[in-house]
Inverse folding.
């Protein structure tokens, strides 16, 4: 168990270090989400807060897609994935480490995106929204990391990931928008938690088959 | 395994499908009492709902074969899983079409977000369309078999989760205007429905068997051709 955690930590640290030195993904994600929020402000004719809060979720899902699309690029381009698969560690540790790294990126981006949203739109951000974003991030990264590993195996990888991901992310959008606009956010948060649990277990159990033959 | 057995099984299933579907449609149109509320348009129910249930059965069957593939590593399950998902997608598309016709006949609109089953099938159709994109973008081999199997497994898990999501979304998308649980089905209606369900299931099984036979023949032909070259 400690071995598993140590492997995961080492792999996650590698991804974070790579980003810290290269600074490729994170600035792009921040710019993208802020540009998208600005575009949404002009797409809405009034400051209608319900519609704006719905669009916040579109922004989050698309920004996550941007990050997930980059998640396995280094591994693929440098043939690192084969080495990782051959390494004497549990394959699901690769998934868990990548999940943690993408989750860290996404949370950092949202630390900028949510205040920007509150600044641009009059509706503001309440506690329910913040909790929902946190829960949704876990689900997005759990499913998205597995799908990103799938997509890099194909020929049309940038094209493939959104197609694979969006139908699976629809329940997250429903839960997130619900928690943001409804009076009682509890049931939607519960749903998001349930989604995280189910799909995290499924992704954890099946990741090995995605990277091996 | 002899080559004649799947062929004859396909033939038997096809005959069963023709008889059951013909009988079921006849029962649904002539024997089952007309719905007092919706009139003739309600009779599409006898086709729409069995097709939807058959699509679920196909997706479930495809996922079961996918699980078998990951479990036993036997190559043949890949083709079986793919064929089942393929049939499921066809029946899913038919569900969307018949549901849309029914919505038009009953409520005057081609699409209603209040109809849970239809919305669910739209999500599933998008999901399984991506399944084909995934399959066609990866080269044939064990890697493709694994990826397809994992994605097919995600599909059956997505069905209940999406259903729950659609029920939750109704609270804020728009209120449910139409409910279909008014009058209960009478005995005759239920009997006609069951015959139709058996018919569509037999049809799916026949299509599945025939497609599988064809695909296997195709694969063997390709192997033979490669041997000759």
């Amino acid at each position: 168990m400690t071995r598993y955690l140590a492997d995961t930590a080492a792999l996650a640290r590698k991804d974070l270090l790579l980003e810290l030195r290269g600074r490729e993904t994170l600035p792009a994600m921040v710019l993208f989400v802020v540009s998208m929020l600005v575009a949404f402000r002009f797409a809405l004719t009034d400051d209608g807060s319900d519609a704006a809060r719905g669009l916040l979720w579109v922004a989050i899902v698309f920004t996550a897609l941007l990050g997930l699309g980059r998640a396995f690029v280094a591994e693929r381009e440098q043939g690192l994935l084969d080495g990782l698969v051959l390494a004497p560690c549990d394959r699901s540790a690769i998934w868990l480490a990548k999940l943690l790294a993408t989750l860290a990126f996404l949370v950092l981006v949202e630390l900028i995106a949510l205040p920007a949203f509150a600044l641009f739109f009059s509706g503001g951000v309440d506690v329910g929204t913040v909790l929902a974003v946190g829960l949704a991030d876990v689900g997005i990264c759990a499913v998205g990391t597995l799908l990103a590993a799938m997509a890099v195996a194909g020929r049309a990888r940038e094209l493939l990931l959104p197609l694979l991901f969006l139908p699976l992310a629809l329940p997250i959008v429903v839960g997130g928008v619900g928690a943001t606009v409804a009076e009682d956010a509890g049931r939607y948060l519960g749903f998001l938690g349930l989604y995280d649990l189910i799909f995290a277990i499924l992704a954890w159990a099946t990741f090995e088959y995605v990277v091996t033959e | 395994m002899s080559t004649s057995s799947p062929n004859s099984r396909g033939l038997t299933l096809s005959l069963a499908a023709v008889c059951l579907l013909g009988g079921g449609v006849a029962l649904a149109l002539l024997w089952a009492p007309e719905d007092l509320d919706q009139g003739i348009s309600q009779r599409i129910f006898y086709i729409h709902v069995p097709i939807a249930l058959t699509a679920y059965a196909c997706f479930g069957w495809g996922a079961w074969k996918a699980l078998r593939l990951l479990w036993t590593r036997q190559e043949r399950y890949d083709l079986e899983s793919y064929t089942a998902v393929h049939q499921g997608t066809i029946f899913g598309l038919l569900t969307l079409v018949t549901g849309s016709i029914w919505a038009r006949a009953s409520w005057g609109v081609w699409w209603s977000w209040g109809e849970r089953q239809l919305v669910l099938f739209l999500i599933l159709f998008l999901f399984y369309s991506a399944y084909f994109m995934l399959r066609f973008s990866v080269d044939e081999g064990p890697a493709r078999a694994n990826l397809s199997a994992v994605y097919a497994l995600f599909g059956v898990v997505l069905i209940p989760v999406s259903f729950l999501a659609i029920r939750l979304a109704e609270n804020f998308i728009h209120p449910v205007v139409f409910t279909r649980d008014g009058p209960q089905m009478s005995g005759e209606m239920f009997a006609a429905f069951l015959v139709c369900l058996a018919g569509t299931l037999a049809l799916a099984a026949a299509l599945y068997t025939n497609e599988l036979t064809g695909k296997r023949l195709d694969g063997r032909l390709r192997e033979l051709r490669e041997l000759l070259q």
In short: The longest helix of chain A spans residues 91-120. Chain A is about 85% helix and 0% strand. The mean pLDDT of chain A is 89.
